[in-house]
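This section describes the prediction task in plain terms. A model, or a person checking by hand, is given the sequence of a single protein chain and must write out its three-dimensional structure as a string of tokens. No templates, partner chains or ligands are provided. The sample shown here is typical of the held-out split.
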Amino acid sequence: QVQPVESGGGLVQPGGSLRLSCAGSGLTKDYYVIGWFRQSPGKQREGVSCISIGDGITYYSDSVKGRFTISNDNAAVYLQMNNLKPGDSAVYYCATRPYEGYGCRLDVAYSNWGQGTQVTVSS
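The expected answer:
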């Protein structure tokens, strides 16, 4: 197992951009699927995006498609967030699960979770 650590959150104006990072020992090995989730007070946790490192398959929720991009290098997994909206404000979490040979999904269980990083979109 690996313990993810998120970074890159902060305060940004609507229309602005942030780049979140998810790092951890061995996190970018090709037998992991990495997911990004977010949660606001009083709301259920929402899946945002995921990447299957081994085959490069990515997925985005409808609410962020076209604005967010997930990627990875040898050091970390990233979530580039562009054209941010107030509704994107949340604590963003990175999580891992084993790669099972068929890309990635958000509506499945993830094993290891980071502590989260706060994103606030406000003018």
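For orientation: The longest strand covers residues 90-98.
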